[in-house]
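Hi support team,

I submitted a single chain yesterday and got back a structure, but I'm not sure I'm reading the token output correctly. Could someone confirm the output below corresponds to the sequence I sent? I've pasted both exactly as they appear in my results page.

Thanks,
R.
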Amino acid sequence: MTRTRSSFPVGVVGLGVATLLVTGCSSDSSASADPGTDAASPSAETVSAAQPRIAVTYDGGVLVLDADTLEVVGDLPMDGFLRVNPAGDGRHVLVTTEEGFQVLDTGVWTDGGESYAADPVLTDDVFEADTAGHVVVHGDRTVLFADGTGDITSFETAALLDADGLPETESWESEAAHHGVAIELEDGTKLSTLGDSESRSGVRVLDPSGEEVDRFEECPGVHGEGTVAGEAAVFGCEDGVLLYDGEFTKLDAPDEFGRTGNIFTTESSTVALGDYRDDPDAEGSLLSSIVLIDTAADRMQVVPLPAGVQYTFRDLARGPGDEAVILGTDGAVHVLDETTGELVASHPVIDAWEGPAEWQDPHPAIKVHDGIAYVTEPAADAVHAVDLATGEVVATGELSGTPNEMAVVTG
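Hi R., thanks for writing in. Yes, this is the structure output for that exact sequence:
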């Protein structure tokens, strides 16, 4: 482990640091008078409790499923390779398109203690972005990164729920365009990656006014992010992980090349789960070890999975007790203790599968919500709901298309 406190002086603005721009969108951001008669959801009805839904992409659009029954409640045609991310308000999903981040209203939400359900709607609202990339929800802010320009857009998460159209946004710029990511902390501090079209090197820190106050440039290939309990931010590097909790801490991987590129965190644990690759020349996207990052102890632990079990970046999640959850190529959902890495349970769910030729190709994925693991099975055009406490498959949904990416909203 290398702990480094950057000597970058507070108050000095580095090259390319942009002034924060607070911009109001052209659409009316006033709240709807009655959520039950929202313009985007004229069919809304009051329901007794929040009703989660799942957005699943396929070649030709996005299916919206009832999370309890896995029945299809909406089929929204769209062209191109689609990615989906929850917007963070329990209702909307941001769909990555050529224009940017398009807002999909899944039709379920809770507002003022009342829950509502309606037909899903693909709205015309788009957060414009050149090569839309990562979506990060933390605290009360949602942050979007445009890889084609390095532009970063932030908005109050709840404002999207209330807005008739797009909410007011705040934006700032990267020093150069790159495949990056940004996080906004609860005090307004902003963290964003450093890089260009050729490489990525680290993370910089902006204060709430947009002035750069710190940076760390020894995190090669920086990719992936998450924020744990206590608001320590975690970024993946090709030789370990980078932590920020008011100062930077670099945790070195046990291998000369030890890449973590995707990180999964919870609000109740100081331990982050990451993927792990120790061979820079390995072909394909399958991995056979995970990494557990204890931010309170400044420790990262590489945990090999059971023999023959591999996974991709789509196959990691966190359980209701902060467990590490992995969907393996053996078709089972494996549950590991987050502190020891000990295998707690293995639940067979789908047939064994092989890794994709390209990462964009449909292959099994997992998401967890409220103790239920949702598992896609592209070979069968199906999605399964698994009770993580018992391993029981409690529902299976048959789809009209082959599932690819997936996002869950809470309702």
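A quick pointer for reading it: Helices lie at 157-162. Let us know if anything else looks off.

Best,
Support desk
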